[in-house]
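Progress report, Aim 2. The chain analyzed during this reporting quarter is listed below.
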Amino acid sequence: MASPAKLAHVVLQTSKLEEMRDWYCAVLKGHVVYERHGLSFVTFDEEHHRVAFISPPETLEPKSPAAAGLHHVAYTFEALDDLLDRYTDLKSQGIDPLVSVQHGITTSIYYRDPDGNSVELQIDNFPDVAGAASYMTGPEFDEDPVGVCFEPDKMIDARRAGASVDELMTRKWALATSPDMPSPLAIVAGA
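Predicted structure tokens for the chain:
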């Protein structure tokens, strides 16, 4: 039996269709493909839609942070500079991250959408799956599979000062530049 070829799209149910659509279009640099009848379909690449919204006629209850369900959806950028450019662009639009985490396997910036869902914007820190899998079975990941917080503005400053991408995509750099940052789990729990 074959596995699926790809993850095609995510559909979110919301009472804030316009706000959610606009937020996702900003965060993903997407555009609306179709919108009518309480539905909106958004894409940012070759897929006909990557994110869709369903807005039922009745008002929905807000999502409880204590509810079971999907934790977040992640979107991968090709390069660190692309991720940092998106961070800067979103910040200029008043969209601030919830937390930025150097996971070791990825460098990630998390956001919260208008309904309270988490969205991760990331880059892979390894050029291939084998390198990532090897890291995930190593001691650093085993000791702390969540990772440490970092400050994107400090990363941007370091990059402008000539720091290499390889240097910045490490927990060592994050710990050296942001030693007093709380645990990512503490930030998420307090949000």
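The longest strand covers residues 106-112. The longest helix spans residues 80-92. These observations will guide the mutagenesis work planned for the next reporting period.
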